[in-house]
Amino acid sequence: MADHVFEQSTMCVHRAGASTEGFQSFSTPVYRASTIVFPNAQSYRDRSLRFPDGYSYGLMGTPTTRSLEEQLTRLAGGVRSVLVPSGQAAVSALMLTLLSQGDHVLIPDNVYPPVKQFSQEVLQRYGVAVDIYDPMNLQSLRSSIRIGRTKLIWIEAPGSTTMEVCDTRAIVSIAKENGVLTGCDNTWATSLFCKPISLGVDVVAEALTKYVGGHSDLLLGALSFASMDLYLQVKEQLANLGVGVSPDDCSLALRGIETMSLRLAHVGSTALAFAQRLKDRPGIARVIHPALPKSPGHEFWKRDFQGSTGVFSVQLQVHDTALVDRALGRLELFAIGASWGGTRSLVAPMSLDGQRSFGTSGSTSMYLRFSVGLESPLDLWRDIELMLSAF
Ligand SMILES: *Cc1c(COP(=O)(O)O)cnc(C)c1O
């Protein structure tokens, strides 16, 4: 048998493979797989025993995806993580796991808008009751809890566009008193600047699309868990839904993480300097940046966060869309677009029209959301001055 020479077509399929002996590199190999090969029939028959940490099917993980999960778990201070195709999928997969017909979920008013839409368009259709709560008014949160029915309080700090930092510890304690789980979207801070699990949150979502990817060319999301029990529920749900991620994308995320602390330090200090300088400029009603003392929830940012990143908002004095468009048209370096966290600076005009249930006084205002990138701060400030000259 050993001397048997296979036909060419067989040789095409069965590669000899190069030796990895003596090969050491810093990169994590991209292991792609649908099929996982088992050493014998018995071990194939017992493959379900490999759940959750062993390898049984490519959709459930390869060494590349597990490397990224392990790194995220360590940074988040959790027990395990799962990967999904986007930040939005992280939130929706979690909610589809935890919530059943008859349950009730509480969503903050300043949540990433597609999450509000998901809860109202999908969860409600499946018989889950959804209430929007004011994250800065915990008395109202407390009274919104339906004993026995509320299963999850969602948290996002800082909130989208209006950047309020809520009192996560107090929300967690209200939740625990009532036997309710908490989950938190930590995309703005990343695990480097906030560890919600250490504040008592049960599960943390992050859009790796943003700072982990870091180059505006990747869509990926993660959930990191405080307990094995929750992790196992979500892992099984992902198998049921058939949701997995590409090892190629994970290898980009693994590369992105290596430079994340440097990128965040740079965009964090540049964004804060810009926020301070913008405070007293014409056309600007208010700068909202969690590290500025007048920003809502600044005291909770100081208590719970170890830094600030490159995204902040300004509320404009003007209500004239044409004027805002002219101002944005003067920008040469800031590009106009969403999905921040890359190397390029972005600005996005935001309106809260009809989107908020609380704090509606400012809801007719126009906002600009800045995401500072890695260009020279001198050039970027010149660009902002060009824009401001339109006001
Ligand atoms: C971008 C973002 C998401 C969604 O991430 P995608 O990967 O684009 O789906 C969720 N939450 C927050 C706070 C975000 O900024």
TrEMBL record:
Q: Which cofactor does it need?
A: pyridoxal 5'-phosphate
Source organism superkingdom: Bacteria
Per its UniProt record, what InterPro entries does this chain match? Cys/Met-Metab_PyrdxlP-dep_enz, Cys_b_lyase_bac, Cys_met_metab_PP, PyrdxlP-dep_Trfase, PyrdxlP-dep_Trfase_major, PyrdxlP-dep_Trfase_small
Its annotated pathway?
Answer: Amino-acid biosynthesis; L-methionine biosynthesis via de novo pathway; L-homocysteine from L-cystathionine: step 1/1
Tell me, what's a Pfam family for it? Cys_Met_Meta_PP
User: Which residue positions does N6-(pyridoxal phosphate)lysine occur at?
Assistant: 210
Task: Tell me the GO molecular function terms.
Answer: cysteine-S-conjugate beta-lyase activity; pyridoxal phosphate binding; transaminase activity
Query: What is the similarity comment for this entry?
Result: Belongs to the trans-sulfuration enzymes family.
Protein known as: Aminotransferase class I/II-fold pyridoxal phosphate-dependent enzyme
Specify the species. Answer: Paraburkholderia sprentiae WSM5005
